[in-house]
Structure formats: structure tokens, C-alpha cells
Amino acid sequence: MTTTSKSDYKADVEVAEVAVNEKVTSVNEGPIDIDDGYSPAFVRSVTRKVDRRLIPVLSLLYCISFIDRTNLSLARAANDQAMNTELDLVNGNNRYGIATMIFFVPYIIFEIPSQLGLRAFGARWWLGMACFLWGVVMMCFGFIQTWQALIGLRAVLGLFECALFPGATYLISCWYPRHQMATRTTFFYVLSVVVCGLSATLAYGLSQLHGRGGLSGWRWIFIINGIMTMVIACVGMLFIVDFPDKAKFLKPEEKELIETRIERDRGDAEYDPMTMAKFWSYVCDVKLWVFAYIFCTSGTSTYALSYFLPRILKQMGFNGFKNVILVAPPYVWVPIPAMATAILADRYHQRALAISLNSLQVIIGTCMYSQLGASHLAARYAGVFIAVGGSNANMPLAISWAQTAIRRQSKRGYTSAIVVAFGGLSGIIAGVSFIEKEAPHGYPTGIRITLAMTAASILCCFGLWVYFKLENRKADRDGKVLEGHPDFRYQM
């Protein structure tokens, strides 16, 4: 019986390191050939193995997370808006808007602590248990009797859901080199969005249980979704993979390949604990706040459409079954602009351009569906497609670009938390700017804010592109050290 030598997988290390060092000056034009010294077939095999274990289960968890946080609008539209009557949402000052907004308060506050728990308890148990607990909360929505209880449970839901998205994006960034982040993060996100869009059809079907067990149809939407969430949480606890240094599904030589690729790409394969000195240095890094704003801008349009699209469609003239079923098609469209711009970002290193193109889609689509640029019904509905596609495509691009512009695992965890926290802020902005009393007039305040923020994000992309270009030039010409590593260069 013959054994496979380690040299079959890895060539002489010294020769490989020389090759890497020779190519380091070409980082601006493309990624370092971080696979030097490894068989291409072996690299592809291991990458696919990681893809199969990591991405689908994270997508499944984020899918149910996205459904659970946004199905409030579908429940509200069910059974001739029975939820409005039973919970007295139509009286008072924008109670529905407050219910959508309050989710994001604990979601923002607990983002950074959630990343500390991810490392302390491991991704499998931390993310899986968070999912199970918010599933319990979802079931409780089906039994509430007052609008105050609705608002309280929405806050608790935000507390548990805050762990997943930043945790998942941080986990992905720890497994892949920079030139593979955008496509993986986008695939993880887009798969969730498509299934979430189809949830409108599921919600309509569940609403037909109206009267069963003495419960309204909108209550069954929450109860069944809660049970589904708890089942998916158990699947997550079985199949979520941990960080590379703790991975048990890889052979030693496969784990070494993953860690070597990360080390050669950016020199942060080993975990470095968060300290107060590091924390404050990260807080003072201005580019992270710019990335957070870009993510916030995309989130504002995304959440506005998630929470208010049924009402916008009703304002267009679609009622009843049409109002529910027409929510899904725009989300089925999302993978096309999302994957196209993700490939543009990763393969051609045009991250600023990719995000700007999607932002232009948001501006054009928003003008169309809001009657600022179109009056024909078909054109307005087409605008929904364009706006949904552009805003959702930008969410994974923004956070993956942020992850390519930094080093150290502690900074990755902080960056995921702060960027996604601004995504929570976008939910608050959408909740308060799309004012209920303006619904018959097409939410003019929310539309104007969305357009202004999106236009500003294009300027931010251009500013980052110029800044990174100048910093890379200083590093090449004057030997300036970026991100604490002499060979690090920003990707634009």
C-alpha cells in the first residue's frame, strides 16, 4: 500500500515564497498567485469542498433570518389586513413604522458583542442557538394581542438575529483569499434573498388557514415560520463549519492549504485576540465608516422595499392575490445583477465600479416605481425589479469590499459588526422615512431620502477608489506600510 507524500500537494516552500515575493508588486492589477507550490487540481478540490460545507448551510440560516425579519409586511397584508384591526395598528402615530424600526435598535447595539461570542463559543453553537431562539420568538408573534407586544417581540427578535449576518460574513472572510470573497459572499446572500422573495407565496398559502384553531391567518404565518426556523436551527447546529483552525472536516494537508493561501494573500491566517488598543485603532479607521455608510445606503432601499412593497403595489392598483404574488418576481431577478457585479468585483478588481453601477440601478428603479420618472403601470413595476436588484446586489459587495481592505482577524470581526450595524441603522431610516400617512402619495419622504443617500454612496465609492490608488502608489514608491504589512495593497 502506497502513501501520498506531502510533497505531492506542496512544492518546496522556499521556492514558492520567492515566487510570491516577486509578484507582490502586481497586487493592484490582480491577486497574488497564492497557489504557487500547490497542484491546481488540489486547490480546486479543496475549495469546492469548503464551498459545499460552508456556503449552503449559511445561506439556509440567513434565508430564514431574512424571512423572519421581513414577513411582518406580508402578515399585515394577509386576510384584508386583519392584523391592523386585531392589534390596533392603524390608530396612533405610525405604530407599524415603529414596529419595523425597533427591531434594529438591539440589532445595532449587540453587533460587536455578538462577534466576541462567535469566537468564544464557536460558529456552530453560537449561530445555531441564536437561530433557534429567534424561532421561538417568531412563534410567540402568533399569540400576541396588542401592538405593544408586537413592538416588544420585534426588539427581542433583533437581539437574537444580530449574531447571524456579521458572523456569517466574518466566517466566510476567514476561509477565502480576497479575490474570492465577493462571489462567495454574494452567492450566500443572493440565495437567501431569492428564497425570501418566494416566501410571499408561502405566506399567502398560510394565510388561507384563517380561522383554523380560532386563529387569524396572519398568526399562522408567524407560527409556522417559527417552527420552520427552529428546525433549520437544528440543521445548522449539525452542519455549520467552524473557523479553519478548528475545522474537522478537512484533512491536515487540506487545512494547511487553506491557512497558507490566507497567509500569503494577506498575512492573517492566525487569530489575534481583540484588545482595547486594537478596538480604538479600528474605531479611528475612517475607511471602515465609509464602507458602513455604503452598506447602510443599500440597506435603506432593501428594507424599504421589503417592508413596504406590498403597500407600494397596492398603491399601484394591485390588490388581493395579485398584491401578494407580485412581491416574488423582483427577488427572483436579483441573482443576475448580483452575480454579474460580483464577478466584475472579484475577477476584474473593479469593486468601486460594481457598487456604483448597482447604485445607479437603485436610483433609476426608485424613480420609476415612485412615479418620478414613469407613469405607466408596467414601467413602474419594472422599476421595482431594477431597484430590488441593485440594492440587494450591493449588500454583499459592500461588506466583501470592506473585508478586502483590512488585515487581522480581530479587525475582520469588528468590521463585519460595524458594517452590518449600519445595515441595522438603514432599517431604522426606512422605518421612519416611509411614513404611513404618506402611503397614498407614494411615500415621497422615503423616496427622496433613498435617492439622496444612494447618490452620496456613489461619491463615496469614487473617494475610496482615489484614496486606495494613492495609498498603493505611496507603498510602491516610498515603502509606506499599509495595514501593518509591507506587502499589503488595497484592492479597488
Automatic annotation (TrEMBL):
| Bilayer-crossing regions | 54-75, 95-113, 125-145, 151-175, 187-206, 218-241, 288-309, 324-345, 352-372, 378-402, 414-435, 447-468
Please provide the record's keywords in A-Z order: Membrane, Transmembrane, Transmembrane helix, Transport
SUPFAM superfamilies per UniProt:
MFS general substrate transporter
Gene3D superfamilies assigned to the protein according to its UniProt record, in alphabetical order: MFS general substrate transporter like domains
Alphabetically, the GO molecular function entries are: transmembrane transporter activity
* Subcellular compartments: Membrane
Q: Which InterPro entries match?
A: MFS (IPR011701), MFS_trans_sf (IPR036259)
Q: How does it sit in the membrane?
A: Multi-pass membrane protein
Mostly located where? membrane
> Got a GO cellular component term for this one?
membrane
Q: Which PANTHER family match?
A: MAJOR FACILITATOR SUPERFAMILY (MFS) PROFILE DOMAIN-CONTAINING PROTEIN, PERMEASE-RELATED
| Name under which the protein is recorded | MFS general substrate transporter
- Recorded source organism is Cutaneotrichosporon cavernicola
